[in-house]
Amino acid sequence: MSITQSGAGQQSHAVYGAKLSLLTAGRLPGSTGLDTIGVLILAQGTLTRSGIAAMVSSRAGIRVLGDAEDVTSVPGDRLLNPDVVVLCLADGSRAAFERLRRAREAFRASAILLVIGALSTGGTQRALKADVSGVISDDVTADELIEAIRHLSCGRRIVGTDIAVMGSAQTPNPLTPRESEILGLAAEGESPADTADHLHLSVGTVRNHLLSAVQKTGARNRMDAVRIARARSWL
Hints:
By secondary structure, the protein is of the alpha/beta class. It has 10 helices and 8 strands. The protein has an 8-stranded mixed β-sheet, sandwiched between helices.
């Protein structure tokens, strides 16, 4: 795994194979720099958690403090004081990111390494904007995961190359503010008639906006347009 860095006093960058790239080398608040790194693993599925724990605990200088499905199921979570929290999300949906919000509130002084499964443009953008120290996909190797944990414990920030590439390729939002508003109400279950009454528009006007949104997103129907718009962070 090759690592390259620029000279002192300049922003540092590192490349780990084709997977990870170091964003900044500045120390983060709360980073300890201790020889032994305390790690907490939050992931859904006993097999996933035990697999990650086995990989992490087998490396020198790293100690697994515990593992759980979510912050709410960690006994005495505020007493663990992990250096790094490895948080695995199935995807980048808003519902999945609710787990990140809870973890951030519980472990404000810890570095959080976000590991995302299914990548989407919207989820990638959400991850890059999140209050975390690192973002990688679950396609990384065991060595890359360990390297990421070690860099985070030293106060560095990292992002996976695949995530960085997808994040930079976000498609501009083609929807008008009114189309986004009406499509968002449709996503909440409102009928065209309900939306027309809500926004003081005619039903025909609402239907025209919905049809335009469907065409612009390349969707099959209204709910498919909602799915596409959400995946691309247009809603």
